[in-house]
Design brief:
The radius of gyration is 23 Å and the shape is globular. The relative contact order is 0.15. The protein has 271 residues and is mainly alpha-helical. Strands 1-2 form a two-stranded antiparallel sheet. Helix 1 crosses helix 10 (242-259) and helix 9 (223-230) packs across helix 10 (242-259). It is 45% helix and 3% strand. The chain has a domain at 33-119.
């Protein structure tokens, strides 16, 4: 499978505008994620191992593959070699362990914040591409975590942990946390530690450049070549190399979006 999604030198390959949804932007970055593409390859291979020639992303007319999707599952703990699901359940019950059995397409999808895994070479479809709201999930840190010598207070950190004392009134503690978070988030944004959300016009221009940079890098283009095409007005001569430096900044931001931060884009309200 070729990692490159589009021809970065062809501007017409990037048909985005101010009406492009945040979910589509998230999908555009995710589909360019190399590890996601590898998972899709692995998923297709497992489907082929189960039934020769079966491609889960190609639906033929008058053909139902519901039985395959139901039988292709991810087990945690894993099945032993030659073990049936009923035997797996018996084994876990004997040791008092509760396992999970998840359809493989859903398991791979949830791994990347999707309701089901999607072929990265298929165009965005709001019906098929659905992101899971992971922002509502809460990470719980045990008391030992707070006692670690490695944990220090860094005011510019994008992550903070708060201790809740359940023996005290929750409303007062939650209100205090909300006040701190609101104030600290404003400070981070004003001081450039958290990127401000661009408006629709700015986002369309910026994200399109990011996607072109990713496709360019994946196709083997050098930063100097990318700079010549995407920011031709910037000088690119030693020692300044302003064009290459600009491209390096774009690529860095784009890499963060395709590797991890894409998951937050659907949660941003368009403006």
């Amino acid at each position: 499978m070729n990692n490159t999604i589009a021809n970065w030198t062809d501007e017409s390959s990037y048909k985005f505008d101010a009406n492009t949804s945040m979910s589509q932007w998230a999908y555009e970055f995710l589909r360019r994620n190399h590890d996601y593409q590898k998972d899709v390859k692995e998923y297709i291979r497992l489907c082929n191992d189960f039934r020769s020639g079966f491609n889960p992303f190609i639906k033929k007319s008058n053909e139902s593959n519901d039985d395959i999707f139901d039988e292709l599952r991810h087990y945690d703990p894993t099945l032993n070699a030659g073990e049936s699901e009923s035997k797996w359940l018996e084994r876990l019950a004997a040791i008092g362990v509760k396992g999970t059995s998840t359809p493989l397409d859903i398991w791979y999808g949830e791994k990347w914040g999707l309701s089901t895994i999607i072929d990265p070479y298929s165009e965005y479809n709001s019906i098929n591409v659905r992101f899971i709201n992971t922002a509502s999930r809460v990470s719980i840190a045990g008391t030992n975590w707070f006692e670690s010598e490695k944990i220090t207070k860094i005011t510019t950190s994008k992550k903070q942990a708060f201790i809740i004392d359940y023996s005290l009134p929750l409303s007062n503690q939650l209100a205090a946390i909300k006040r701190h978070v609101t104030s600290h988030y404003k400070w981070l944004k004003n001081n450039g530690h958290v990127e401000k959300n661009p408006n629709k016009r700015e986002r369309t221009k910026l994200y399109t450049i990011y996607l072109r940079c990713l496709d360019a890098v994946d196709s083997g283009a050098q930063h100097t070549e990318i700079a010549k095409a995407l920011c031709p007005t910037k000088t690119n001569k030693y020692p300044d190399m302003n064009g290459s430096k600009t491209v390096s900044d774009w690529v860095k931001a784009a890499e963060e979006l395709r590797t991890k931060n894409y998951i937050y884009l659907p949660l941003i309200k368009s403006k």
